[in-house]
Amino acid sequence: MGATVHWDAVAPLVVTSLAIMGSPGPTTISLVAAASAFGVRPTLPYLIGVIGGTTVVLVAVAAGITAALLAVPGIGTVLLALSASYILWLAHHIATAPPLAQPTATSAAPTLAGGALLGVANPKAWVAIAAVFASSTLAEDATVDVAVKIIVLAGMIVIIHVVWLCAGLPLAPLLKNPRLSRVLNITLATALVAATALAVLG
């Protein structure tokens, strides 16, 4: 009886995850910016890295080790430093990316490893996923509850980040114009830094 899944509670969990996990943040804004600056196909490895890193956070939350990790002196500061450092590096490359019609050897898109690093070090991910994970109970049996939540939220991590990546598609044509490209890339880079600052300060 305890293994029964409350399927009627899945929809509210999905809506909650969309509202909290799907809101603008370092990873989501970076995907829009990277897809716009470098194109969707070159950004796919970065997308996979972000999804993988964020899923690691999900599993850490599900395993109940989030609080223990963050209780280790300095670990929160390390995560913030890693996230901020990578964001600043990525923002610089996005802001200085050439128009899509004029690729250069130095205009490489962010990598799978970079995406994984940001996914794990993203301060918003730890807070948002923990909040969503605790927002509902899908089964009376704790093991079943955790397993179903991991499946549902892992799927939402994929969907949310793919949608944000695709949000960069309408901007891509504008980036073939050198002047518009410079303005848009700098705007997106600034938004990325701002989203990270809000996540950190929040």
TrEMBL record:
One of its GO terms (molecular function) is amino acid transmembrane transporter activity. One of its GO terms (cellular component) is plasma membrane. It is a multi-pass membrane protein. Keywords: Cell membrane, Membrane, Transmembrane, Transmembrane helix. One of its GO terms (biological process) is cysteine export across plasma membrane. It comes from the Bacteria. It is found in: Cell membrane. The chain crosses the membrane at residues 44-63, 70-92, 112-134, 146-171, 183-201. InterPro entries: LeuE-type (IPR001123). This is Threonine/homoserine/homoserine lactone efflux protein. It comes from Geodermatophilus obscurus. The lineage of its organism: Bacteria, Bacillati, Actinomycetota, Actinomycetes, Geodermatophilales.
